[in-house]
Design a protein that fits this description.
Blueprint (H helix, E strand, L loop, with lengths): L1 H11 L8 H12 L4 E2 L3 E4 L2 E4 L18 H4 L4 H10 L5 E4 L5 E6 H13 L7 E3 L4 E6 L3 H11 L10 E3 L4 E3 L12 E4 L11 H17 L1
Helix pairs in contact: 2-4, 5-7, 6-7
Organism: Streptomyces luteolus
Protein name: Bifunctional DNA primase/polymerase
Length: about 220
């Protein structure tokens, strides 16, 4: 299974271009009209990178909101984004969901399986990320959180039985090239391009995603 994942990763994850976090955050706001907000960052301490939040056992070091009221900080203005990152250029790039997009979050193994199936079905995809926590996130139109449970039931699965969740209003995703501690950086499996500016609806992707998650559950 591990070998299969690595083959899929090398075949399906494009080369990531090296960009600075502030420039990338500005580009997301300017080119994609995504809201962005700066999260925590990594600090070197005794030769070890730790989260700026100061919590030794931080689950997402350098890749989570700084403030509880982060929803008020998110901005779609490139000018404001540049100003925010000028205060701390190493801040992670976080994108609030439930605004211009929701995200369907699945395990890496299921994500690559579903992606191969979607390509065979010639489905139109939006951007897709791969996190160092071995999760894949498929960007879809807002509203996925409300629709997904019923859609999964119609496919014959109890929603709670699948490792598939949706991120909508009140949630967020970490965007490339944000790093998560020593685990690595978030990467694009499907980069944002002019061709995928129009996002798919949840109904278009849920069948291959649920199938892949169900197959992983049986392994």
């Amino acid at each position: 299974m591990e070998e299969t994942i690595e083959v899929a990763r090398s075949a399906q994850v494009p080369q990531q271009r090296g960009e600075q976090l502030p420039d990338t955050a500005v580009r997301y706001a300017k080119e994609r009209h995504w809201d962005v907000f700066p999260g925590t960052w990594l600090e070197a301490e005794g030769g070890v990178e730790r989260c700026s939040c100061g919590e030794p056992s931080c689950a997402l070091p350098g890749a989570h909101p700084v403030r509880e009221d982060w929803t008020n900080q998110a901005t779609g203005s490139a000018t404001v984004a540049r100003r925010l990152w000028s205060k701390q250029p190493d801040s992670s790039i976080l994108l609030p969901t439930g605004r211009t997009f929701d995200a369907i979050d699945v395990p890496e193994t299921a994500g690559f399986l579903a992606l191969a199936r979607m390509e065979r079905m010639d489905l139109a995809l939006g951007p897709v990320t791969l996190t160092p926590c071995r999760r894949m996130q498929f960007f879809v139109l807002p509203g996925a959180t409300a629709k997904t449970p019923d859609l999964v039931r119609k496919l014959g699965w109890p929603p709670a039985s699948l490792d598939l969740r949706t991120l909508g209003e009140g949630d967020w995703v970490a965007a490339p090239p944000t790093r998560v501690g020593g685990r690595g950086a978030v990467q694009w499996v499907r980069k944002p391009t002019p061709a995928n500016r129009w996002l798919p609806d949840t109904e278009e992707l849920i069948s291959p995603l649920a199938y892949a998650c169900g197959r992983e559950r049986r392994v």
